[in-house]
Amino acid sequence: MDTITSIKGETGRDARRRIRAGGFRKPTAGMAPGYVQGNLAILPKEFAADFTRFCMLNPKPCPLLGQSEPGDWRLPMLGEDLDIRTDIPRYRVWKKGELIEEVDDLKKVWRDDLVSFVLGCSFSFEETLIDNGLEIRHQSCDVNVPMYRTNIECTPAGPFHGPMVVSMRPFKPADAIRAVQVTTRFPSVHGAPVHLGKPEMIGIKDIAKPDYGDAVPVRDDELPVFWACGVTPQSVVATVKPEFCITHAPGYMLVTDLLNSQLAVL
Amino acid sequence: MDTITSIKGETGRDARRRIRAGGFRKPTAGMAPGYVQGNLAILPKEFAADFTRFCMLNPKPCPLLGQSEPGDWRLPMLGEDLDIRTDIPRYRVWKKGELIEEVDDLKKVWRDDLVSFVLGCSFSFEETLIDNGLEIRHQSCDVNVPMYRTNIECTPAGPFHGPMVVSMRPFKPADAIRAVQVTTRFPSVHGAPVHLGKPEMIGIKDIAKPDYGDAVPVRDDELPVFWACGVTPQSVVATVKPEFCITHAPGYMLVTDLLNSQLAVL
């Protein structure tokens, strides 16, 4: 069993090879530092056009980094040797909106009509926030980021619709301003916050009770800062209840060959 | 008497000529739209090195746009024909920290040892905020921007020291995020906010009682957003009480040949 997450100098390709070899079955946070990790959604091709359009219409929660041809398990724009069936340490298989099983690879469940979508995730901008000397509270607390369903409706496309989910990180005001500046540079991984302070304005009744993930303390001298979250597309797909669907297991992401620094627009 | 503030197509040079001709004696907000306006501080040369250093150490409240040679009334970096003795509609003359008189030009009080300093002002970024569809509350209320002394100490230089003064504009959270992005592009005119929400954290006891300017309403769904303010150097100079000093009268600024768009770093 491969239990080492962070290996100095490891590339995205190295990390995928470790996963593909079958030894590594842990969350990917900390693997291949500097490389972009992504959320996965796999849908039958009859949903593909609408889902692509949904992502285009809602780029902050659904920043599309890559998309496969129907039936093709490759995503060469994200990694030359990438095989989406084997390169993620844990997958979830859904039927009609219900979680059927968690699997280590997709070889037994793969179908020729499946289209893979990879969406940017907040790991990329969190790395840059840390590089800027900011504290990421849920990392300090060693828990999952707190996430909340909001009253902000996504722009619908075909059957896909639903509220935006946001993640929350507390910062002192001057650090919140810096966090806006830093994350603005990364539009393909959720970009700038969508809201800060005043959680009630976006339909969050109790900041201590996230809908997903874990609560973290928000101190008196801090503001909660909210970013559009990659859980949004999963929540939206769950609402549509497609007959078949695959996602990554939360925290078990796709490690790509892209560098976080390459995603910075400035 | 020249009573028209805003003339379509007027340049900075046109505006200064109107002022120099003696007819225009009103606040300059709205003159020569698109052109940079600046704060003025004139000091005897024995203070010049320390004041320059103070500005360099405190670039957010004191963004230095231009500086003259001792005794020279020209500032060619801000306007080829610029004459600092005549090109501002109203000046204040100070002795030992006390306001002695307001004058329309400096011809009678000019001295060969005077050094002029022009500092960026918030008019430049307010224009860009409006271009981005944001409402500037004090403009809607037709009053002066509210300004507050904070508990943030400037970095001292020679005799110059004192607290940072900030200006406040209220915005809804999403607009506050946009305002951070927009003003970040303008570091030479105060740049990004220094604080938002939680006025008590920077020593502001009552947002309804500004130390300078006028109070404006902050609604329940808004956050007060605070920028470093060009009143800071005036407040600092007042503390030092130099034997002689000249400033512009509040709101009666220097109109330059620089375009606001030229100040954007991105």
From TrEMBL, chains A, B:
PANTHER family: D-GLUTAMATE CYCLASE, MITOCHONDRIAL (PTHR32022:SF10). NCBIfam families: PRK05463.1. Keywords: Lyase. Signal peptide: none annotated. The keyword Lyase applies. GO terms for molecular function: lyase activity. Pfam families: D-Glu_cyclase (PF07286). This is Putative hydro-lyase RSO01_47320. HAMAP family: Hydro_lyase. Its EC number is 4.2.1.-. Belongs to the D-glutamate cyclase family. The keyword Amino-acid biosynthesis does not apply.
